[in-house]
Amino acid sequence: MKNPAEPVDAKVRLNDDGEADLSLPICFPQVVYATLYNIPWASFCVLYLAPGKEVTVLIDMLQDESGINSKFVGFKGYFARFDKEFDSTAEDVESGYKEQKDKYPKWEDIHDVQTLMDACKKQMSIDLDIYKGLSCSKTIMDYFFAEAYTPPLDLMYVADSLKQTKGFKDYIRQYYTKNLYSPKAVFGNGFVDASKYYVMADARGINADLARYCYYLPQVLDGKDVPKPLIEDKNLSDLYDKYVTEYKQRVASNKEKVTGDDHIHYLDMTDISPDSILSTILDRYKGKTALIDIWATWCGPCRVAIDQMKPMKQELEGKDIVYIYMTSSTSEFDTWKDLIPDIHGEHYYLTEEQLNHILQQYGEQAYPTYAIYNSKGERTYLMTGFPGVEVMKEELENAMK
């Protein structure tokens, strides 16, 4: 996988016999969600996969799709009952979390390392008590216990003032590095976020390789020029090289595809830095009223809103308004290229880092997000989630006054 902390969208189509095979390049046991496209989003199952293991899923498309996950009727192979057990066990775990929520530490209130260490121990103890009370198979139990023994530290909520201290960095290196040697380490978001503090640690083995892999590869795929780290495991090293090569080929191909299309722009990190990407785009349209629509090809509400605004755009035709559509490499390039000819406006296909920086400037992290600027370049409106055609039209007309 490119980054174990990030979702990977691997699509597969059924053949004429109603069958499909999918192989995933995974390096450690992990949970995978299988979803039926073009079916209500609730139609999915949860699989527990491991390197070299296989599982078969039987889907009955004639089942009533109004029932949650009713189309997934059978499982065979590696821990085939994980889906059914996981759902019920996860509900028990969530219930336990809610009962104990008042006892959990508040990370944002922690400003020294000793209090942080005590909080980690406290949360681990609470989680272990919850898991010990579960009634489930050993595999499910092992899964949750592995999570509990991974340091329960969500860096997103740790105060910035604490992150910058030497004591905090030393604590992360010493405490988290232990997990580089643990075969049960869970490589979730917190683990990967912490990897930047110890990627140079003198640790060996597959977990140490994974930590460096998780830290460096996402940077390469965001367009940064970083050297390949030491990855001793050949399979993981080859996988790293594969994704880097594919990324570079895709960048070259994408640039070639968009050449000559005046309303389509492909901007990469070598040209525009994330902190200046928004101003660079807006400078192109000085003197105009601008509607920025941040969307994704996989975002259903985004695409519905785009369709609903088509009559409004026709009604406002002739007004000095520019419609700016921004998406990132989380959207499949070929899908994006196929969709945009039917969407009148200026289109930008950015890197994830560029688009995330714009969303951070807006204080938002969701799709769709809209921003309106008047002819002076002043932002007059900001909204996450489609507010409706009438509201959008009114805000555009206000910006033109």
Overview of this structure, please?
Helix 7 runs parallel beside helix 8. The strands form three sheets. A six-stranded mixed sheet has the order 5-8-7-6-9-10. Strands 1-2 form a two-stranded antiparallel sheet. The protein starts with 29 loop residues before the first strand and ends with a helix. It is built from 14 helices and ten strands. The mean pLDDT is 80. It has helices at 82-100, 113-132, 138-149, 160-163, 166-177, 189-194, 206-221, 234-258, 277-283, 300-308, 310-315, 333-339, 352-362, 389-400; strands at 30-35, 44-49, 55-59, 72-77, 264-266, 289-294, 321-328, 346-350, 369-373, 379-384. Strand 9 (369-373) and strand 10 (379-384) form a beta hairpin. It is of the alpha/beta class.
DSSP strand content: 5-15%
| Tally of helical runs | 14
Q: Would you count the extended β strands for me?
A: 10
Helix-strand sequence: EEEEHHHHHHHHEHEHHEHEHEEH
Task: List unreliable stretches of 5+ residues.
Answer: none
Reported for the largest beta sheet, the result is: 6 strands, mixed
**Into which percent range does the helicity of residues fall?**
40-55%
